[in-house]
Amino acid sequence: MNKYNIFVPNQKIITMTFSELANKIFEDSTNYYHTMDDVYAKLVNPYSEDKIEGSLFKKNWIDAVQWHLEDIIRDPKIDPIKALEIKRWIDRSNQERTDLVELIDSYFLTKYQLVKPLANATINTESPAWAIDRLSILALKIYHMQQEVIRTDATADHLAKCQAKLDTLLDQKKDLSLAIDQLIDDIENGRKFMKVYKQMKMYNDPSLNPVLYAKEK
What we know:
- By secondary structure, this protein is mainly alpha-helical.
- The chain has one domain.
- Helix content is about 60%, strand content about 5%.
- It has helices at about 20-35, 50-75, 80-110, 130-150, 155-190, 210-215, and strands at about 5, 15, 120-125, 190-195.
- The protein has a two-stranded antiparallel sheet with strand order 1-2. A two-stranded parallel ribbon has the order 3-4.
- Strand 1 and strand 2 form a beta hairpin.
- Helix 1 packs antiparallel against helix 5, helix 2 (about 50-75) packs across helix 4 (about 130-150) and helix 3 (about 80-110) packs across helix 4.
- The longest helix has about 35 residues, at about 155-190.
- The N and C termini lie far apart (about 55 Å).
- The relative contact order is 0.13.
- The mean pLDDT is about 90.
């Protein structure tokens, strides 16, 4: 399995698989966000953003903020003007998330650009970065389900159901992490090849969203 030598902020070097790296950074980022628990808080990235570690940390931060924006906008008593503001914030966040996923895929494309695929090499249903995107969301699901499990104001039935869900999420994390490492290993050894498609989101593009370009006529 492919291993990475990772520089962490205290200048130590740790060797781990890519999923171990991602899980560590996603957990650190999730915990960091919740020390403030404020969608208006400013990100202070402990890693350089031109490195893969910095991209992973920023990716999870964006996901954490959007998670809480999705909670806020579902308040039935929210002011409609505020709701519209948050909806447009979520749209921008979705675009930033997509841009970062594509940036992470670029890291893998560059890293393995000299690998020659085997004659029987196959393509995966998703790129490494989109699988890593799911791992980031999973870190947030696990964090929030853990918070439900330790609630003191909930019924025993609620706590038991949340514990069962948490167990499932942790099992999913283990399986997804293994699948990501296997995919990266397959790409490194030519058994699979990457083919990345830009998402081409249409609703954010004034030239592709008919509501927006109609107003320009």
